[in-house]
Amino acid sequence: MNIKIAPSILSADFSKLGEEVALLERCGADLIHCDVMDGNFVPPITFGAQTVRAIRPHTRLPLDCHLMTLYPETHIEDFVKAGADIISVHVEACGENTPAVLQTIQSRGVKACAVLNPETGAEALFPAMEIADMVLVMSVHPGWGGQKFIAESLEKIRALRARAVKIGRPDFDIEVDGGITGENVKEVIAAGANVIVAGSAIFSSSDKKATISRMRG
Ligand code: DX5
Ligand code: ZN
């Protein structure tokens, strides 16, 4: 499968986000992962659609907007207008409306992704997989960068890849987010993930280009 690396700007220097995303593009990133937190679904507040609009002119890469918010459906229009290419919503926030929320995102010409927290079982994503363009497995508790990878996530990734094969979508994009390093990325890919989010591993590295290309394998 085609492996894509999605650096998370949560670990970037927020005083110069435009330069940071342009640098990530030059270093070979495939997507820019934007962690939107509302202080309710998760305790911290990061940024919203206005920041996504501000970085949009600084890169041609797809902007992968991970909404860690309550009522994510109320924010879709703002992120679409800001230039998001992918909008990810949590099944824990949307509940049984998840398929409908994904369809709303797609109806605006943007890719839709359903996200799973570490406490939620893989099967909670199965209905969404009939519709979604991608699913995202959180391999840490959402809210903060720099946490340790939760090893049980590997089993969940395997279950989702098996489900993708079963429903006739073997190339389905499975994204994994949290605690991924140059050391554990191989296991994550071997389990069936193909879109890799990494914040601290990329931003703490003195050679982002080498780190990104090594992660891609
Ligand atoms: C956590 C965010 C992640 C985070 C990943 O809530 O969704 O995208 O930035 O950071 P690292 O790679 O440092 O775990
Ligand atoms: Zn994220």
Structure description:
The chain is of the alpha/beta class and 217 residues long. The chain has one domain: TIM Barrel, CATH 3.20.20.70. The protein is built from 10 helices and 8 strands. It has an 8-stranded parallel β-sheet with strand order 1-8-7-6-5-4-3-2. Helix 6 links the parallel strand 5 and strand 6. Helix 2 runs parallel beside helix 3. The longest helix is centred in the C-terminal third of the chain and has 14 residues. The chain is globular. The mean pLDDT is 98. The site of zinc ion has 6 residues, from strand 2.
Q: Estimate the helix proportion, in percent.
A: 25-40%
Question: SSE order, as H and E?
Answer: EHEHEHEHHEHEHEHEHH
Count the domains: 1
Overall pLDDT metric? 98
Percent of residues in β-strands: 15-25%
CATH H-tier superfamily = Aldolase class I
Strand ordering within the main sheet: 1-8-7-6-5-4-3-2
- pLDDT < 50 runs, ≥5 residues: none
**Highest-level CATH class:** Alpha Beta
Shape: globular
Bound molecules: D-xylitol-5-phosphate, zinc ion
CATH topology-level name: TIM Barrel
CATH architecture: Alpha-Beta Barrel
Query: In angstroms, what is the radius of gyration?
Result: 16 Å
How many strand elements?
8
Please, how many helices? 10
Structural class: alpha/beta
| Largest β sheet strand count, sense and barrel closure | 8 strands, parallel
